[in-house]
C-alpha cells in the first residue's frame, strides 16, 4: 500500500516592499505595483502607510506597515550609503519586502525604480508556507 500524496499547497505569492519619496505620484506607485504581477501584500514604513493605503485598497491587498527598527540590519544586495545611514539597511524596498515576507524569504530579482525616480519596489517570497 502506498502512502497518500501530501496536499499540493498553492504557490506563495510575493510581497512587494515599497520605498518612496513623500512627493511620489500615486501613478508612479500604481505602475510599479501593477508591473509586479500577482502579489500577496504591500509593505512600507508605517510613517508612509497612509499614502499607500488607497492603492492597497484599490488592489485588494493587505498593507503591512513596518517600523525602521523592523528593517534595520537586514542584509540587501543593494548598498546605498544614504539608506544605510538613514535606516541601517542598504535598500529600504528590499528590506521591507524581506521583513514582510517573513523568515526564510528571498528576493525575487532586482529592485525596480519608477520612471520618475520617486519610488522603488522589491519583491520577496517565502519558499514555503
Q: Rounded to an integer, what's the Rg over CA atoms?
A: 16 Å
Number of helices: 5
Distance between the termini: 29 Å
The secondary-structure class comes to alpha/beta
Query: What is the ordering of alpha helices and beta strands?
Result: EHEHEHHHEEE
Described by the principal axes of the CA atoms, the overall outline is: globular
Strand content: 15-25%
Poorly predicted runs are: none
Please give a structural write-up:
It contains 5 helices and 6 strands, in the order E-H-E-H-E-H-H-H-E-E-E. Helices cover 33% and strands 22% of the residues. The model has no long low-confidence stretch (mean pLDDT 91). It is globular and about 30 Å long. By secondary structure, the chain is of the alpha/beta class. The chain has helices spanning 26-36, 49-59, 68-71, 81-87, 92-101; strands at 15-20, 41-45, 63-66, 105-107, 112-113, 119-126.
Q: What's a quick, concise take on this entry?
A:
This protein has 129 residues and is an alpha/beta fold.
Q: What topology does this entry show?
A:
Elements: E1 15-20, H1 26-36, E2 41-45, H2 49-59, E3 63-66, H3 68-71, H4 81-87, H5 92-101, E4 105-107, E5 112-113, E6 119-126
Parallel strand pairs: 1-2, 2-3
Antiparallel strand pairs: 1-6, 4-6, 5-6
How would you describe this structure in keywords?
alpha/beta, 5 helices, 33% helix
Amino acid at each position: 500500500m502506498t502512502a497518500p500524496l501530501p496536499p499540493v499547497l498553492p504557490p506563495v505569492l510575493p510581497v512587494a516592499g515599497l520605498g518612496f519619496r513623500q512627493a511620489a505620484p500615486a501613478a508612479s506607485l500604481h505602475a510599479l505595483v501593477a508591473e509586479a504581477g500577482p502579489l500577496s501584500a504591500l509593505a512600507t514604513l508605517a510613517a508612509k502607510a497612509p499614502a499607500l493605503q488607497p492603492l492597497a485598497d484599490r488592489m485588494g491587498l493587505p498593507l503591512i506597515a513596518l517600523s525602521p527598527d523592523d528593517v534595520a540590519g537586514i542584509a540587501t544586495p543593494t548598498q546605498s550609503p544614504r539608506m544605510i545611514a538613514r535606516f541601517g539597511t542598504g535598500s529600504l524596498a528590499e528590506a521591507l519586502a524581506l521583513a514582510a515576507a517573513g523568515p526564510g524569504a528571498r528576493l525575487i530579482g532586482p529592485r525596480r525604480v519608477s520612471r520618475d525616480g520617486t519610488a522603488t519596489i522589491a519583491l520577496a517570497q517565502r519558499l514555503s508556507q
